[in-house]
Known about the structure:
Blueprint: H1 2-8, H2 17-49, H3 57-105, H4 109-114, H5 117-159, H6 161-168, H7 171-180, H8 182-208, H9 210-215, H10 219-272, H11 277-319, E1 335-342, E2 351-358, E3 363-367, H12 374-381, E4 389-394, E5 397-398, H13 404-409, E6 411-414, H14 425-430, H15 438-447, H16 451-455, H17 474-488, E7 492-496, H18 504-518, E8 522-526, E9 538-543, E10 546-551, H19 553-558, H20 562-570
Parallel strand pairs: 3-8, 3-9, 6-7, 7-8
Antiparallel strand pairs: 1-2, 1-4, 4-5, 9-10
Helix pairs in contact: 2-3, 2-5, 2-11, 3-5, 5-6, 5-8, 5-11, 6-10, 7-10, 8-10, 8-11, 10-11, 15-17, 17-18
Bound molecules: adenosine-5'-diphosphate (ADP).
Adenosine-5'-diphosphate binds near residues 350, 368, 370, 372 and 373.
Amino acid sequence: MNRYFYNISGxxxxxxxxxxxxxxxxxxxxxxxxxxxxxxxxxxxxxxxxPASGLDTTRLWSVCAILVVWLFxxxxxxxxxxxxxxxxxxxxxxxxxxxxxxxxxxxxxGYFGKRDPGDMTNLLLSDYGQVEHTISxxxxxxxxxxxxxxxxxxxxxxxxxxxxxxxxMALPIGILLLWATxxxxxxxxxxxxxxxxxxxxxxQEYLTGIRExxxxxxxxxxxxxxxxxxxxxxRDSIRLEGIMGPIxxxxxxxxxxxxxIMIGIGSYLIVGGTLxxxxxxxxxxxxxxxxxxxxxxxxxxxxxxYSAYSAQRIMDVQRERTMQGQAPVDASGAIRxxxxxxxxxxxxxxxxxxxxxxxxxxxxxxVGPSGxxxxxxxxxxxxxxxxxxxxxxxxxxxxxxxxxxKLLQQLSMVFQDVYLFQDTIGNNxxxxxxxxxxxxxxxxxxRACCHEFISQLPQGYDTPVGEGGSxxxxxxxxxxxxxxxxxxxxxxxxxxxxxxxxxxxxEAAVQQAINELVANKTxxxxxxxxxxxxxxxxxxxxxxxxxxxxxxxxxxxARPGVYAGLWSLQQQAEGWQVK
Length: 579
Ligand code: ADP
């Protein structure tokens, strides 16, 4: 249980303090009418047993007056307490979410490869929602509902311990039942959360891939996967409710049977003459009010048990090691790969013992068949992953000790699959430099040959682009991403040449934009068309993660080997050139 509170509070149990205290006070306030009821009962009872003294009306009116005051006080106290407890709970959940999102940002990309994207979304939305509900509702309810039964039990012990024990006799059995089935409940909750995540992931996959599904007529097949995941969710939901329901219900019935036991034992004691009628009546009066909150306790417990698994998932991500390193990087220096080996999975090496050096302000082209590891080289330079062995250094700084953020500040990346955010086109360029002025954005757009087409859009730079940039053509998106990179003006440019054929007009514009981008920078370009890299300072030829050749175009095309083979194949190809 300690671990549970530790998990839901995101590792800081103390933050639960204010809302727990508020709930405790709420419970105490709720006890007042019950205590007054006892007093009223006594007042009436005395008037019957001692008719000479009559009904103590002063006391009666005093109790009524106290109740009226209680109404106002409790209203004031409740609003204050709600504010305190719920505000604290929601703040805790919001801070926790942000902390987790920040943590996720510092994880290596390898971590995301291991998880379904829908799973991550669910973690932040659904799992946190569950924990948030527990902190804001279940936990305060649980605490406040315990106060009255606890106080009643203590008071009753003094009044008549036999009756008090009779009243709460079955409660430990109910609790024992919950405790005994704890691991079953945990397993069911775990399966249900997993089924929920699986269904959300399949739904996300279905919606994201809807274009491909339509194009390749995969509706039946993909829909089948979606259907199966929903079937599993339905099955696990029914199982969870079907098994948990009777368990909680039995625990509730057992607890409530305390009333019956108490009446039985009370009657027996009255007949035996060891219990007086007023005490018995008092037990009946308060007893009925004790069991409702206890039912709430059991229901809250069930829900809290469920969210324990969500909290566990959140803590697991929080425990995941982030990328370490604080050292700044001098990106104007040379890039060196020294015996670098790397694999996305431990059992499939992608790069093996790769060594090369890139001089500052030169253009290096990476060439090789698809899957040879070209993109991997650029991802390792950006430290999306850390190497398995060997060293990558920039300006003499080993990247494993470099600050990932400071490194990324010095890199511009232009990939083939450009992602544009659902925002205005101007703001999409501004991502390169968040404090850029409109003039700077337009200047970058001009150099990237996109000012003209942006100016012709209905709202110019304020025109919204669809998510992923679906409203722009491939060539336009690429130029927008080059404008971003130009605005960033980083010392190192990582460039993945477009393989998709662009129309001649777009191609010339992209070529011009790239030539603007690479001037006076250290450039690493993944080249698919060799014609474009004839003037590169150095060409590295990769095959199955190994460096098989290196040199200039003249050197490599003159001697037999992989490059000469590729060159003769592509000689006829038309394309642009990096000058
Ligand atoms: P290239 O850019 O030369 O086409 P990549 O560097 O993209 O090659 O890929 C090299 C190898 O690594 C390929 O076998 C590819 O399947 C594998 N690979 C690439 N990205 C990942 C990833 N995120 N997870 C696992 N394997 C990957």
